[in-house]
Amino acid sequence: MPLVVPGINSAPDSKSDWANKLMGKKLSDTTSDVNSFAKKDLPESHRVLKPDDFATTDHKPSRLNVHVGEDGTVHNVTYG
What is this structure's pTM? Predict the structure, then answer.
């Protein structure tokens, strides 16, 4: 198994980094506990997608897409 050192041989803020930070947490305006994540701490280029939200089909490789459920809990993180 190859050694992966964050920021050296992997892209900083890669999808897996964001997935580890966000999966299972609720997005909120401020971080109030360990089960939430503040929207202001997301990268500048991001969008939060709720079920049944319309999303443009333009592909922006650096844009973080945060997919949340009806209750605001993150269930998927993608780029594009």
Answer: 0.77
Cα 11 to its chain centre, rounded Å, is 15
Q: Which domains does the chain have, with CATH numbers?
A: 15-25+35-79 (3.30.10.10)
Compute the distance between CA of residue 34 and CA of residue 28 in angstroms, rounded to an integer.
12
Q: Whole-angstrom Cα distance, residue 35 to residue 73?
A: 9
Give the pLDDT band of residue 32 (cuts 50, 70, 90). Answer: confident
- The pLDDT > 90 percentage for the chain reads 62
Helix, strand and coil content of the chain, in percent to the nearest 5, comes to 15, 30, 55
**CA–CA gap between residue 17 and residue 41 (Å, rounded):** 13
